[in-house]
Amino acid sequence: MAQRPVRVIIGSVILSLQSCWLLLLSALSGVLLVSKQALGGNELVGFAMILGVALLTAAAAIGLFRLKNWARVLTIAMSGFGLFMGVLMFVMTLAMIVIGRSGSTGKGAMSTGALAFVLLVYVVWLLLSLWWLQMLNAPLIKQAFSPGAAELHGGSRKGRPLSITAIAVLLMCGPLGFIQLWQIPGSLSWVFGWHVPVAVFRSVMVVTMVIGLCLGIGLWRLRPWARTGTIAFLIYVMLNVLLSFRMPTPTGADLQAFSAAEMKPEALAHLEASMPTLQRVMLIAVFLWFCVQLWFLVTRRHSFEHPGK
Q1: How far apart are CA 60 and CA 17, in angstroms?
Q2: H or E, element range at 236
Q3: How far, in Å, CA of 100 to CA of 113, rounded?
Q4: What percent helix, strand, coil does the chain show, rounded to 5?
Q5: DSSP string of 237-302, one letter each residue
Q6: H or E element: which one contains 191?
Q7: For 199-240, what is each residue's pLDDT tens digit?
Q8: How confident is the model at residue 297 (pLDDT cuts 50, 70, 90)?
Q9: Burial 180-190 (b: 16+ CB within 10 A, else e)
């Protein structure tokens, strides 16, 4: 077995600490659920997700320490998904700070100082996600997880750029949103700017996630057809985002449907009043996020060209 790099040891320790914290959090959530006899709905889904992430993190920590490549891939997947969610939450928190400074705050609003602290947490989150992606894709680290890989390939294939790895991971993480699909209220089931029944919306989303999963696997293996398909896929998603500006602003009932706990009326009223701005900011951020991915796919064509073709 190859020598274990110091960065891998540090990474496995970080994951171990994260898994312990998440297991403690899931235990506390379980105790609260039992004490309140609230064993259903969003509370149970939230508990299951925290516990699932805790177990995945623990497995990744053990696998990284033992230099298992599946643990490396799993950590890359979690980091890519965390990077995507971190960007969204960072933009939304920044928008809430701007709204607060404009005077559009209510009794249930968080203070600017508290929001600034949350923003700092998301910055650390983003930096940690980027560190994971960079570290686990470094040539020496990849070699440690797959001894003799360079000799096996013999230079017959160019290395996968970090940008392509990140896009592939994000596509393969799509099925993680499957649980949240069943929380979508009927008022938010919009496709291409048109309101459709919830069943149709869920069907379209499931098909979209399956297609994204297949494209992600293809990108990971540097298949040219996957690059072409992902470009078309991103254009489809970006059109959908642009047409989503026609969507109505979510109501208080819609916002409560996504909450794992009962929100105070004051906080819910403030959030509902801020949603028009937050919705526009989030849609713009998502659109720009897909633009960046599209740019990387267009400019990394050489990575998909195999020698002799």
Answers
A1: 12
A2: helix 224-243
A3: 11
A4: 75, 0, 20
A5: HHHHHHHGGGSPPP-HHHHHHT-SSPPPHHHHHHHHHHHHHHHHHHHHHHHHHHHHHHHHHHHTGG
A6: strand 190-191
A7: 777 788 888 888 988 999 999 888 999 999 999 999 988 888
A8: very high
A9: eeeebeeebbb
